[in-house]
L-fuconate dehydratase (Streptomyces longisporoflavus), 446 residues
Amino acid sequence: MSPTSARVIAVDTYDVRFPTSRDLDGSDAMNPDPDYSAAYVVLRTDADDGLEGHGFTFTIGRGNDVQVAAIESLRHHVIGRSVEELCADPGTLNRDLIGDSQLRWLGPEKGVMHMAIGAVVNALWDLAAKRARKPLWRFLADAEPRWLVAQVDFRYIADAITPEEALELLRSGRHGAAERESLLREHGYPGYTTSPGWLGYSDEKLTRLARQAVADGFTQIKLKVGADLADDVRRCRTARQAIGPGIRMAIDANQRWNIGEAVQWTRALAEFDPYWVEEPTSPDDVLGHAAIREAVAPVKVATGEHVQNRIVFKQLLQAGAIDVLQIDAARVGGVNENLAILLLAAKFGIPVCPHAGGVGLCELVQHLSMFDYVALTGTTENRVIEYVDHLHDHFVDPVVLRDGHYLAPTAPGFSAAMRAESLAEYTYPGGAFWAADLAQGKGAAA
């Protein structure tokens, strides 16, 4: 098949679930029993190169039924389209998926449908980067600024950033890009780890993992909080004793609190010098975050992993509601919308510290931060990517960390492809693990 006439011939979906709740991995005050899951999509083409586009969105169990169905509802927008045209302008697919009026009614641009759009759009970017023979971070960093601006939907955010302002930011960001790319390849991008801090872990396990994090070169860890104040005081004291005064410690309430509770709870933990308090209340409450930020300073306020689109991010920035912006590679409408959010953050001068962990979120979001460093903001100051040490072995191109830093991926694509063996074992309900599990009457994810 000629490369110029190749078409997308299949959009395959997989409901992939891992039984992480059984060891309390991922447990927090709002989500005590998460089974980390991925609604996974593969774009297949009839091109002779055999390349595929891989993408997914992250869920925590039974919601995957709904999420996979949402992805499947977008199939008709993709099947039969020119591979060359899609890869030359991924924004066309992004606009078509967001513009489906009957499906848009379920949002608009939020929730399950928007996450499904993100999964498909990310799969296209994976394919485009593979065809360009570049890892996605470099594919974006090498792209012409005007082309990148054309990938962004400025509807609803033009009052905060115009296409002309975005173009200037990207043009300015190219100065010194080659030197920063060299530094990135040599040293990597700074990370922090949440691995010690899951709410269900014992104090012994917390202490052991916190000390190990420092030994591994991390300069920041994070603890889940919000279920019981006395318990949180004890755990924060335990963690601070384990890591010493020179390591940053963030706390994460996972949306558990009302505004007053957030202020009181954060002040009660202030003696342990938390660097930021994350998701202190509803991710939709812009004014609530602003009130909390004013009341708990100098503790910083961070949020973003559940912020549903660029419009809410815009308002958080306009309202001065956050100190740290946390993009999520699989929550909003894919790379295109995350480009918009990165540009907004750059315009307002707010550092981006992405949410990661989950299933494959570390693999994806590293590319966005590395692009931001090389070709947009040009800095890693007060910027770190979250890291959680599980489920990476299920990916063909897993993240690699050295001395607390993400090493720059070198393989072409978005690092999104899962191993065939993992799909065969953990696809629900017919994969080998779940079939055996259900046969034994466990059915934890049913």
In short: The chain has a mean pLDDT of 95.
